[in-house]
Design goal:
The complex is a heterodimer of chains A (58) and B (321). Chain A has one helix and no strands. Chain A is mostly helical and 58 residues long. Chain A has a domain of 34 residues. The termini of chain A are far apart. The relative contact order of chain A is 0.06. The model of chain A has no long low-confidence stretch (mean pLDDT 80). With 321 residues, chain B is mainly alpha-helical. Helix content of chain B is 81%, strand content 0%. Chain B has 17 helices and no strands. The chains are: A mainly alpha (58), B mainly alpha (321). Chains A and B meet through helix 1 of A and helix 2, helix 5 and helix 7 of B.
């Protein structure tokens, strides 16, 4: 009985670790995706504004 | 229903892994490659190629950065469609040899993860294309994803043997989206590019379906060979091929393709027709299977080659202009 509960708690820990790793990977992927989106929107904004964006009267 | 079945499958697999060893859990952890697989990368390459062709043969100019963003957004939209398709079709995927190794049937990605991934990617890709390029292209991409998920995957695929004929439109939209990204409109020329892929889809998929008809029958997908029989399918393959070849030559006459495209479309079209006639003519034994395989693989080469030539010619014209 004792052996059995040890095995179950060991398995639970492994499941928890796997879940934690899964969440961490997901967070990293979301962060990278958002970073990429920011760069893309920044680049497109610069292109749309064009080189004469600084040529304005103050 | 699909989700429940696969959820059960995954639960069972996970339970099995728990009973065996914690190390077995590692096998169920998703990797980046699983999410890449969800996006159907092989389909994506064709989407990218045809979209780029649409962009390069379109009249007018597009800034290279905006063009690159358009390609990324279109690719992401195609990937989203793939992930959403795998989410919905997970119940039949696990029972078909061709699709049993996909991430959901293998238990590496849950249906929920696939749905979330596909849904988020779909929204972001459409918004990006709409906001950063133009809303005609964005709307066409939204229509493509909607069409592929709701019209093809959810409705037609399991209902009618005309599933891939009507549903094939989803795969035919990318050159129109590419064209719209440059011009901000839809025109007859871009509709012609759409029609080439639209007419190409039935002979391509039915050649495969003839080889895999037992698989489709087992999971209850009414592909034409299952419902109407191999003889009718072979006839339909030939008819669609006869319609496709002249359509694919047309771009050379309306200025979309150059001399190289014209020659290639005639030569490759003749070979396509020859292989389609073989599929129609040879109906028994190994030779019949070989004819189907030959047409299936050649059809891929055919479409890749034609659109690759359009890309090269379009790029050369733009560089020399």
């Amino acid at each position: 009985m004792n052996d059995m509960s040890n095995t179950i708690s060991g398995t639970d820990a492994a499941v928890a670790a796997a879940e934690k790793k899964r969440r961490r990977l997901r967070s990293i992927a979301i962060a990278l995706g958002l970073g990429f989106l920011v760069i893309m929107f920044y680049a497109a904004t610069i292109v749309h504004l064009g080189g004469s964006v600084a040529n304005r009267s103050i | 229903m699909a989700e429940v079945l696969v959820r059960d499958n995954r639960t069972m697999t996970t339970a099995g892994a728990q009973a065996e060893s914690p190390e077995a859990l590692k096998l169920l952890e998703p990797s980046i490659s699983d999410f890449v697989t969800l996006m159907k990368p092989r389909v994506m390459t064709l989407v990218i190629l045809t979209a780029v062709a649409g962009m390069l043969v379109a009249p007018g100019a597009i800034h290279p950065v905006i063009g690159l963003i358009a390609i990324i957004a279109i690719s992401a939209g195609a990937g989203a469609s793939g992930a959403l398709n795998m989410w919905y079709d997970a119940d039949i995927d696990q029972n078909m040899a061709r699709t049993a190794a996909r991430p959901i049937p293998r238990g590496r990605v849950t249906p929920d993860e696939s749905l979330q991934f596909g849904g988020v990617l779909a929204v972001i890709s459409v918004m990006t294309l709409g906001v950063l390029v133009n809303w005609v292209a964005g709307a066409l991409l939204a229509l493509t994803i909607f069409y592929y998920l709701f019209i093809y995957t959810m409705w037609l695929k399991r209902l009618t043997p005309q599933n891939i004929v009507i549903g094939g439109a989803a795969g035919a939209f990318p050159p129109m989206i590419g064209w719209a990204a440059v011009t901000g409109s839809v025109s007859l020329e871009s509709i012609l590019l759409f029609l080439i892929i639209f007419m190409w889809t039935p002979p391509h998929f039915w050649a495969l379906a003839l080889l895999r008809s037992r698989d489709y029958e087992r999971v209850g997908v009414p592909m034409l060979p299952v419902v109407a029989g191999p003889a009718e399918t072979r006839k339909q393959i030939l008819l669609y091929s006869i319609a496709l070849v002249p359509l694919a030559i047309l771009p050379a006459f309306i200025g979309l393709g150059g001399v190289t495209y014209g020659v290639a479309s005639v030569v490759l079209g003749a070979i396509f027709l020859w292989f389609a006639v073989d599929v129609w003519r040879i109906t028994e034994g190994r030779e019949a299977d070989k004819a189907c395989k030959r047409l299936f693989w050649f059809s891929i080469l055919y479409l890749y080659a034609l659109f690759a030539i359009l890309v090269i010619e379009g790029a050369m014209n733009r560089l020399l202009a």
